[in-house]
Every structure is written in structure tokens, then in C-alpha cells.
Design a protein that fits this description.
Radius of gyration: 14 Å
Strand order of the largest sheet: 1-2-3-5-4
Helix content: 25-40%
Structural class: alpha+beta
Shape: globular
Distance between the termini: 34 Å
Length: about 120
């Protein structure tokens, strides 16, 4: 059921503390942790504690949680000293867009020049 933890979801397991992660920030609604395959010096995933398969589904069901994710992305950027130099936030929604874990999550990338288009 949407919103409920999924037994087979890696990110739900991280939220529950069943799988280790390098957590850099946490609130009542989100957990932020370092990506295990970083694409930039700062590459942090900001995830909701509730399970929705992608950003679009989460936004439709719980718009305040999407707002929390975006707000806390800024906190992550500030914590890694990239807020002033710039950073990128990315939601991949669907396999065709590169989403590999089907639990909504935001990538915060920075610490180097980021080209556009991203590729």
C-alpha cells in the first residue's frame, strides 16, 4: 500500500535502520544519506520516510512531504558547503529516466562543475 513501508524496498530498510547508510541529515519526514556510487563530490539522496514509488506519486498524495524534501536538500547543500557555489537537485521518475530504486528520492549533486544538458 502506498505510504506504507515495503519489505522489499532498500530505502524503506534504510529508513528503518535495517540497512546501514551514511546519514547526513534527518527530520520527522525525511532521511538524507550519501549515495554509494557518487557522481559528484557531493551526492546525497534525500528520501521521504513514507514509501511512494516515485516523485509524481508522492507529490499527488503528500505534497507537504515533497516540499520537505526540497527544503532539506538546501540544508544538505549548506552542510556540504555547496549552497553558495551551486548544486543540482534531480528526481528520476520511472525506469526510462534512470530510476533504479522505486522509492521516491531526490539527488543533491554538487562540488564540481555540472554540465547541461546532463546526458
Amino acid at each position: 500500500m502506498a505510504g506504507e513501508p515495503q519489505a522489499d524496498c532498500l530505502f524503506c530498510k534504510i529508513v528503518a535502520g535495517e540497512v546501514p547508510a551514511t546519514i547526513v541529515h534527518e527530520t520527522e519526514t525525511i532521511v538524507a544519506f550519501r549515495d554509494i556510487n557518487p557522481q559528484a563530490p557531493t551526492h546525497v539522496l534525500v528520501i521521504p520516510k513514507v514509501h511512494y514509488p516515485d516523485a509524481a506519486t508522492l507529490a499527488a498524495a503528500e505534497p507537504q512531504v515533497i516540499a520537505d524534501i526540497l527544503r532539506e536538500a538546501r540544508t544538505v547543500a549548506a552542510g556540504d558547503d555547496i549552497e553558495e557555489t551551486g548544486y543540482r537537485v534531480v528526481f528520476n521518475t520511472g525506469a526510462g529516466a534512470g530510476q533504479t530504486v522505486f522509492h521516491a528520492h531526490l539527488h543533491v549533486l554538487g562540488g564540481r562543475g555540472l554540465q547541461w544538458p546532463p546526458g
